Amino acid sequence: MADKKADQYYTRPPKLGKWEGFRIFLWNPETSQFLGRTGSSWGKILLFYLIFYAVLVGFFAAMLAVFYQTLDDTTPKWQGDKSLIGSNPGLGFRPMPPDSNVESTLIWYKTGEPKNVQYWVEELDKFLEPYQKQTISENVQNCDNRDKPDEGKFCDFKISNDIAPCTKDWGYGFGNKEGGGPCIFLKLNKIFGWVPDYYTNATAPRDMPKHLRDHIVKEEQQGKHHVVWVDCAGENPADVENIGPIYYHPQRGFKAKYFPFTNVKGYVSPLVAVHFEKPARGVLINIECKAWARNIHHDRVDRRGSVHFELMVD
Asked: Which are the contacts of 12, defined by CB distance < 8 A and separation ≥ 6?
């Protein structure tokens, strides 16, 4: 009798075909199992994961709430040397080359090809668009006779027609077929709370170009030397020879009234339009522009306090 029960216990289950086995896996009517689990088993495992993920979501939500309590929407937590960008601003230039040459800094165009010139003009139109909108900002303030704006305000920066040919009507100099060169716009990178330490004749360093030092002397006599000065030059002797005359609009630097940057809504960085009046045609010219203040340090390798680009006009 015992042997008969053993034979019944160890009887192999019937061999099922693929489709029949899959059908039994989906629903087994003998055991009331769906996908290999009974209803109570599915209920327990679903309850477990529901509680598990609810706890995870709650934990991360609590951590984010604590994290955001330490942040300010307008003021960065880490500033100056403690921040990732540090306290030494660099320069940026516009217009930039096409995205297809993302690593290139070459500004190259042919004055006799309107389509080629059009790209550079349109890029500057896009870049300067915020400077037209800032005039309607409620935080903008006219600072013509002031050194600084009121708290929570910023001084307006206007692109006026008196900086021709660096205006849209003149094609920013790119469309000049009479031997003229383009206008390249420079801006100082924004660093929250950074205030320039301005040069005077007595503090000008030895490596500062003589023509810039002479310019500071004249401006200091009139009390107008509180400026982050800008100077552009060819990087090599051949570049110096080919670069031609250089003019700066509306003036040769960034005035004190635009500092410090405090993230006021609507603020736009001041600009310097550098007009390369008669660069040599058909020659690649390496150009380096530097920003000059006592707390701006220059490093050509890391591009600290300066910017490099190439110019070629055909």
From this structure: none
State the distance between the two ends of the chain, measured CA to CA, in whole angstroms: 107
How far is it, in rounded angstroms, from Cα 282 to Cα 35? 75
Please state, in angstroms and rounded to a whole number, the distance separating the CA atoms of residues 284 and 311: 6
User: pLDDT tens, 107-133?
Assistant: 999 887 888 899 999 999 999 988 877
* Helix-strand-coil split of the chain, %, nearest 5: 35, 20, 45
Which residues touch 213 (CB under 8 Å, ≥6 apart)? 201, 204
Give the Cα separation of 104 and 101 in Å (integer).
Answer: 5
Instruction: Give the residue from 252, 256, 250 showing the smallest Cα distance to 223.
Output: 256
Please check whether residue 73 is in contact with residue 63, taking contact to mean a CB–CB distance below 8 angstroms: no
Helix (H, G, I), strand (E, B) or coil at 125: helix
Tens of pLDDT, residues 169-225: 888 998 776 667 999 999 999 999 899 999 999 999 999 999 999 999 999 999 889
CA distance 243 to 231: 13
pLDDT at 284: 95
Burial of 123 (C-beta count, 10 Å sphere; 0-12/13-18/19+): middle
Residue 254: phi and psi, rounded to 5, are -110, 120
This prediction has a pTM of 0.79
Token readout for 107 is 């500004």
